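subagent[fold] <- orchestrator: predict structure for attached chain, return tokens only, no commentary.
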Amino acid sequence: MLAVSVVALVFVPYLDTQSCGPELPDEAYRFALFQPDLSGKNDLAPLYYSIPFVSYFDSDPRKKDYWKNCNEWQQLTGKTVSLKDIYTVQYDLSPDDFLYAYKHKQWQQLKDNSFVKWLCQPAQKEVLDYMALAKQIEFSQQGELDPWNERAGSVNTDSILHVVRQKTHTTTMPFLKDRYAFQLVKMYYYNADSVLRPQLTDYYNAHLKNHKTIVADWALLYYALIQPDKNERTRFLLETFERSESKKGFVFGYLSKQELKDLAATKPDPHLSALIALMQGLKQPGRALEYLQKLYEIAPDNEFLPMLVCREVNKLEDWIYSPTVLGFNPMINVNTFYEEKLAAEQNDPERDNKPDTSYFYYAKKNLQSDREYLRTLRDFLISMQQRKTPHRDMLRLAIAHLYNMDGQYATAATYTAGLKNLKDNTFRRQAIVENLLSSFYSKDLHSNQVKQYLYEQFHALEKVGTIMRGEQLTYAEDDWSQNRDLRSALYLLLGQRYRTLGDHLTAGLLIQQSKTVINEYTGYIEDTSRVSYSRIAYFDKYAAPADLDKVIALKHKTNKTPFEKMISPAIWAPDDFYRDVKATLQVRQHQFKAAATTLDKIADDFWEVNYDYSTYLTRTYIGSPASLIPNEPVQKRYLFASKKAIVKDIVLLEDSLAKATDNSAKAHFYYALGNAYFNISYHGRCWMLSSYGKSSSEPHSQEEDDYQWAYFSFYPNKAIFKNDYYRCNHAMEMYEKARQCSGIQKELHAKVLLMMTVCDQARYNFFIGESRYSSTNGISNYKKEILPYSYPYLAVLKERYADTETFIDARTYCPDVDEYLKH
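subagent[fold] -> orchestrator:
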């Protein structure tokens, strides 16, 4: 067969071949080093900046409201009753268990509970009756049958409402009156029809308004929700957010941006304006500095100010760090770019005939704008920090982080130097992070003293913990959470810094130590196999052959420094695997004799028993085109998969060519070398001599793509490797020389022309999309007409060598040739 199908052979070393490809959690696309817990609001972690934007959530995971209720009960019972026992009865004991014990006076299973003992005192009968009624209401609201009715049937809501109304009016205990009124308000909201609901307002105003009790705070939610005026509803919901921990999640999810905007337009009092600005800031996934500034102007010591600050810093990390460090475009900002694109093109009558401006175009354009926004935010935080504020340390850390992100490392260090006696581990952890970031870019990383300092800083980080608490987002029954390892992210940054400095040994080991996903194919991070692409991915992409010698030397070094121990992997690859990488790099550079020397040190069976070599290393002689040329004789076969044997044959061909004295011999050697070079290219049957993976999804150009992490790609290797591996340039050079030397050898000349057609058509098809895309400005012209492949070498073959057996066989056995000759 003549045609080479680019998609026929797909090899992705670790990925499951799913119909839609592998997926990453949304938050994995985001880089973060600034801890949102610095805000002191870790109970509201779902409101931290995140890609899966939250709506309703549990805002009281530590049950502060419940414990506040228990404290209020203890004020009634006295300290002889423990808070734990009150909590057990209130929230751990099921309604049916309590009601059975109440009805039958069987409290044996709670005989040691101090709260139950207090309730069962004759003097507390009225309180016990309230607790029983509250449990009955709870039971009914859970959709259960009435536990007081031994016959199956529905709960009689009217009768319960009647009892609660009566108790609200008759009880003389303020404590119970508040709680009966709360139960009544709640039942009116959930159970009563629209005619009765207005009574909710009356009971709230009469019995709960302005009361300093948790039940009044809870009841305010229902009071807010039935307000006929939308601005009043928004106002009371914001007050509910302020007063109740457990209702914050509901209020956040319920309120819309438009409702907040409408209420703000009424020019409310400063206190309410502050609540509006806070909620608007929390609901803004884009730039929210205006709301932060407004909240600060109204309430400069507001407890939620740090949360808005942390959100803005985390946003900037996503918008600046994610594309520059991870290679992923910020996901939340996608709409911003496309809105700009649509606005620019909406009224353009020629838009259908113009090239498409891709996401990458706008992402690149917007990055500078994000950097300018960083400086604007930083200047505002500096102005905040200059006055006396309870948030001083958090602001200093935020400012230091923004200076580090902006490349002003010395200035960043001055802000962390001003932090003294930090007692909270979250703050100490962030200070170490900022010191490390400053050091990565301002110190001499080649210095042994600096390496020791880095080790000490990472060791200090270990002591205070390396985990940045993850966001917990709840959607119906689905939970999503992710904890971030700060050390992992820092290893990635430091590794990238060493790569810039040319120290590929240190860079490769650090990046391997990092478990952070980047937008490159690096194998399966969690793979524990010693022979795994993840062990060598960095060196395959960026190292020189000599760097692999350094890796092996460090592996066997017995007196490693603390820094060297820190960067050493828990699992080293076998020496032969590192040597294989070295030889592969030498093959790419066509240093076949050097590669042969390296391969001689590797066990003969290494490629037969490890990885996927045995599948993708040819058994057919490397200098043969095999089935690509009809009836081509196979000179020899390899007994087993062996790079060593293949490279030896390539060296032998090169040596034989060098020794050849007549053109006839040279032509044959050029032809065989052309076949060998083609076979070790992307399109050949022995591509694994040059590359560790192959996929039909490999990029044809350098266009930014957030899916590059999912598939193996030979990029970002140097252009010369691209030209040989994808474009077959060296193979075509050999074939052209074979043509020049073939003289009267018409059959050889015909074979050369057929193989040149194979090479030329394969690279044309592979790079057909490249002509539609400009990597300099990110503009794709998918409407550009692409002409079909023209088969220039077949034209020569038909014109000059139609009488050869090679031509006749090709016309018979190669559909491509036959189809071309019909035209």
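orchestrator: received. Logging for downstream: Confidence is low (pLDDT under 50) at residues 1-19, 145-154, 471-481. The first strand starts at residue 356 and ends at 357.
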